[in-house]
Amino acid sequence: MDWKHFWDSKAMAGEGAKQVGRIAGGKELEADVMLAIAKRISEQLQLEDTDRLLDVCCGNAYLSQMLLPYCNSIAGVDFSDKLIREAQKLGSDRMEFYVGDASQFRLNQDFDKVVLYFSFQYFEEYELGKKVIENMLQHAKPGAKILIGDICDRRKFFTYYNSPSKLISWFKQKLKNKNDMGKFWHPKELDKICLELGVTGTCLPQESWQPYAHYRFDYLICNEK
Ligand SMILES: C[S@@+](CC[C@H](N)C(=O)[O-])C[C@H]1O[C@@H](n2cnc3c(N)ncnc32)[C@H](O)[C@@H]1O
Hints:
The protein is of the alpha/beta class. Helices cover 34% and strands 24% of the residues.
């Protein structure tokens, strides 16, 4: 799947929540749900008002702007130049945005906390996911926390694709390399990546009010290096 093309097209086709696929049950997520998600992220990362936060796969910064009240400043990175242009329109002097691929960007800065939310499924191979985590670690201060949130859960694959017609449609999309959900990860794969990179990771279940809790989980990494 050409994910850059996929996200550039979303940027052209809508605005706000729609541009970053913040949809549940066919409707855009309400702003108060997004605000509650931002609050939960701030708690999971223990964000402090002096923290510089790195938001990888920030999209149009719909979520980043809601995280801003919990920290000092945010740097956002995304490979969709069209979504980054939308983010830049927000015009806050406490946020800066860069076009870059999550596995390769270099900012030559390190951050107190790092988040990558609702995007890990687009890294469809184990080695690519590992490269992305390695790159986030390279931008994290010693002791920094890294949250990978809203990861599609391999164990819940059949909860998401819960009917023969959905499974057939998944299979047909897969054959055409057009599956728009990406990879369902097993928490053990993230444990293995953390072990290989010499850091500690913990799988966190989501709370039931979260819109995708029935098939997604969160994962918290501490950069002990
Ligand atoms: C579903 S949106 C999530 C946006 C935001 N993190 C949120 O939670 O609302 C997924 C984002 O991941 C970005 N993305 C996907 N693959 C990427 C990659 N390899 N490098 C950088 N950004 C990527 C897309 O451009 C898109 O903005």
